[in-house]
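Hi, here's the filled form for the chain we discussed.

Project: internal
Contact: R.S.
Residues: 123
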Amino acid sequence: MSAVARTVDEYVAALPDDARAVMETLRATIKAAAPKATESISYQIPTFSYRGPLVAIAAWKRHCGMYPMSNAAIAACGDALKPYEAAGTKSTIHFALDKPPPVTLVKKIVKARVKENEARGKK
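And the returned structure, exactly as it came back:
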C-alpha cells in the first residue's frame, strides 16, 4: 500500500487479491464474533474496539497478521495456534495468503477478548 488508508474499507480495497480475500474473511469473522465492535485505522492497520482495544489485523507481503492484544486470549487457544505462530513472537498470529483463515479459531480469540474487555469494565 502506497497511501495511508483512512478507513478499513480503503485499507482492504488497496490490497492485492490474495491478501484482500484473507482480510475480508478476517474482518467478517471478527464482526460476527463481536457485532458491537467498532473498526478504525490505528497505527496504520485495521483495529477493532469494544470496551477498549479488541484485536487488530494487517496484510503483509506473505501473510496476514492478527494481533489479539492479550496473552490470555492466545493461551486459551493452546496448541490450536501452533500452525499460525510467528517465529520469534507469541503475540502475532500469521495466516497464509493461499488459504482461508480458520474461522472457528478466529471467533474463539475474538470472543475471548470480548469477555476480557467486559470483565475489565465490571471491575
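Let me know if anything looks off before we file it.
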